[in-house]
Amino acid sequence: MVEPQREYYQPFEGVEIRVDSEAVQVISETPLVVCSSAVVGGGVVSVRHIINMHVPKGYSKSDPAGDLEAFARRLGIMEPFVGLMTAAWTQNAKLAVAREGGIGVAVIATVGLSNPIAAGLSAVASWAPSTINTIVLLDARPEPGALVNAIITATEAKSLALSEAGVKTPDGWQASGTSTDAVVVAATGEGETVTFAGPLTRSGWLIARAVRAAIGSGIAGRRG
Asked: Quick one: DSSP state of residue 158?
C-alpha cells in the first residue's frame, strides 16, 4: 500500500498537524480541551487526537461514527478522539497562525463551496459530510464560557470570509456557510488565562484573523 504524501506543521510546542489526501490530523503530546460540533466526540471533551477525514462527495453511509472509528484505528489511534468528515480535499487544507503576547492561535480549515446556504433563509436539509471544517487550536487556558465564545467568533469570521469573497447561494442570497459546516476549538491549557473570546478581545481577534486568513485562502484556491 502506497502511503499518501503528507505535510507536517508544528504550530505550538507539543502539537503537530498532519495533512494528506486522507485526512487532516491534529496530534498533541498532552490532552487538549476541545469544544466542537464533531461527529465523534462532539461537545466538550479532553483528547489528544482530532481527525478531519476525507470522504467522497455524495457519501451517504448509515454509520459515519463507525467509519471514523475504523479510520482512527487504522491510524493506530486506540484512545478517545474528536472526528469530523469532509468531502473537501483535505490535502488542500489551509493553515493560518497568529500570536500576540501569551496567546497563540493556529487554524487549519478544509474549504469546499458545494451547497452554500444563508442561515435562516435556505431550506432545511439532511445531514451530510461537512464542507467547511474549521479547527481552531488555541495556545492558552480558556475558561469554559470562552470556549463557546470562541466557537461563535470563529463562525462569524467564516461568514465574513464568505461575504468578502462574494459567495452566494443558488437563490442569490449572501452565503453564511454551507449546509454541513463544523467547528472545533481545541485549547492546550498553556499560557494566558482567557475569560472571554469575543471578536474584540485579544484571543477573539487572533481567532477571527486566523479563521479569515485560512478560509479566505481556501476560497481563493477553489476558484483559482
From this structure: H
How many angstroms separate the CA atoms of 192 and 157, rounded?
23
Matching residue, cell 474549521: 134
Q: How far apart are CA 155 and CA 176, in angstroms?
A: 9
Please check whether residue 131 is in contact with residue 115, taking contact to mean a CB–CB distance below 8 angstroms: yes
pLDDT at 148 over 90: yes
User: Residue 86, SS3?
Assistant: strand
Q: Map residue 97 onto helix, strand or coil.
A: strand
Q: CA angle, 137 as apex, 34 and 61 as ends, to 5°? A: 60
Cell of 103: 496567546
Coil, strand or helix at 142: strand
Q: How long, in residues, is the chain? A: 224
- Of the candidates 66, 38, 26, 41, the one whose C-alpha atom is nearest the C-alpha of residue 180 is 38
Write the pLDDT tens digit of every residue in 175-212.
999 988 999 999 999 999 999 999 999 999 999 999 99
CA distances to 37, 78, 151, 204 from 19, in Å:
21, 20, 23, 25
- For the whole model, what pTM was predicted? 0.95
8-24, pLDDT tens digit by residue?
A: 999 999 999 999 999 99
pLDDT band at 5 (very low <50, low <70, confident <90, very high): confident
